[in-house]
Amino acid sequence: MSKSLQLGVLVSGRGTNLQALIDAVKGGTLDAEIALVISDKPEAYALRRAEDEGIPTQVLLPETHATRQAYDAALAARLLERGVDLVILAGFMRVLSGAFLGHFPNRVLNIHPALLPDHPEEDEVRLPDGTKSPVFRGIRAVRQALEAGVSWTGCTVHLVTLHVDRGPVVKRQAVQVLPGDTEESLHARIQKEEHRILPEAVAWWAKSCTV
Ligand code: GRF
To answer: Ligand 1: residues within 6 Å at CB?
Structure first.
């Protein structure tokens, strides 16, 4: 029997996307095993979620590494030690350098709380109502969508490259912005879709990117 896909999940916060992966694995809709969860923040609630399921966790503090490259190399080494096939950034609040990505070519997925375009150089994305919206990259994407007054935003799972939020898109879901939305209410609706498309994207990767 072949070994199931080994996932390494990197987190910094609440870990609701990690929970969606845990639930998909437990529910049998995702044929994979979460081999290791690593956080850069010891207080991340995501660590508790993993511990509750008996999933190995580690904390890797940025301040104990002299450079970003040293941190990224240590992070990669820990995942490789555990035989991780695919790395998922599930709310991991650090940008990864070549010192990490070189170890996992086409093997890192990120979930981003906005719609990203098919072509990385594009700065506009087409919305379901036929209009176009600016692309919201970076860590303030939900707030930026609200401030821009767009009618739709969404979420995207993409492969991670050296160019932040510009890797090839794997899955995307549009979410309507409703009158009276706050950053919290809009983010909550986006996250509902994230929790659906992230496990689907991992399953797609397992089918399409492994031999
Ligand atoms: C998600 O909204 C994701 O899009 C962004 O960070 C958030 C993480 O949320 N990259 P959680 O920790 O999975 O609840």
So the answer is: 13-17, 46, 90-91, 111-113, 191, 194
From 191, 193, 202, the mutation candidate for ligand 1 (largest count of ligand atoms within 8 A of CB) is 191
Stated pTM of the model: 0.96
Q: Among this protein's residues, is 65 annotated catalytic? A: no
- Tokens describing residue 102: 């070189």
* Under 8 Å between Cβ of 208 and 34: no
The structure tokens 């950034």 sit at 89
With H, G, I as helix, E, B as strand and everything else as coil, classify residue 64.
Answer: helix
Q: What spacing in Å lies between the alpha carbon of 131 and ligand 1's midpoint?
A: 26
CB distance 87 to 151 below 8 Å: no
Alpha helices per DSSP H over the chain: 16-27, 45-52, 68-81, 98-101, 141-148, 183-208
Q: Please write the tens of the pLDDT for every residue from 61-109.
A: 999 999 999 999 999 999 999 999 999 999 999 999 999 999 999 999 9
Give the model confidence (pLDDT) of 44-74 as tens digits: 999 999 999 999 999 999 999 999 999 999 9
